[in-house]
Structure prediction request, 318 residues.
Amino acid sequence: MPTERYDLGPMAASWVRSLRARNASDNTVRIYSNAANQFRKFLLEDYEPADKDARPAPEELEDIHREHVEAYVTATMQRTSPSNAHNHYRSLKTMFNWLVDEEELERHPMRTMKPPTLPEVEVPVIGDDDLAKLFRTVRGKGYAERRDAALLLLFLDTGVRLAECTDRKVGDLDLDLKVLRVLGKKSKWRSVPFGNTTAQALDRYLRAAAKHKGKPLEEDMWLWWGADRRHIYHRFTVWGVGKMLKNRCAEAGIAPLHPHQFRHTFAHKWKLAGGSDDDLMRITGWSSREMINRYGASAGSERARIAHARLSPVDGLK
Prediction:
């Protein structure tokens, strides 16, 4: 007689509630919740033992084994990408850590499991010509142009992550100090500096936003708002930013860009200008120098050519 498979849903919901209680960022909650829900669905509907010696689908929480997680990570990697599978691996490991801490589980099913290997992928930085074309699309004085110009300049000038930028309140922005307070990974706050040009664009946007909404902005309001006047109380989310960037790229006649490319471009331009690694880590919120190497790989050959032109041993001979 077939047995009933374990439904991870209630435990996953409790875990998500604990994340919110710990003031995890909205993006962290979205990522973790998605991984838990996808794993739940996999166990309920998709998991099948690979052979007669493999473990059956779990009937209880304590039945969840490394084999089940490995099968899910493999399926996710085949269905999407190694990087997405890696993100789901990290999310599930965090969830099982919580289940052990809460004494719902005695042993961590992923305790001896290794994350999937990530191939070295060089994310292309955005060229100056494409940047110029992109920014020409936001030269107007309308609300949407003011908002999009401020967003794009902030991405380029700070390397801030998409959710770090969009999930902000008006009070997080200080135009006098020229910093944006953001909530990064592991629920760590940091102040991200920006330059005069970006400060001017943000000031113009705030004035345009107050007119758009028909009232002064208050510190506890969301910072970014939609452009459609029929929905002036709808905040501008990560999905809206992605759609905006896609549309602006099409208008500019350039290949589609992803918001994260601005982060790589910022790191590239920072290193190209001779900025220090320590300052780069503080601005971007990296806790490991490994991230400098990972992001620094983008356009690294270009920086090497420029450095060689300046430091060539042969050219320096008398």
User: Anything to note?
Assistant: Residues 9-101 form a domain with the DNA polymerase; domain 1 fold (CATH 1.10.150). The longest helix spans residues 26-46. The chain has 13 helices and three strands.
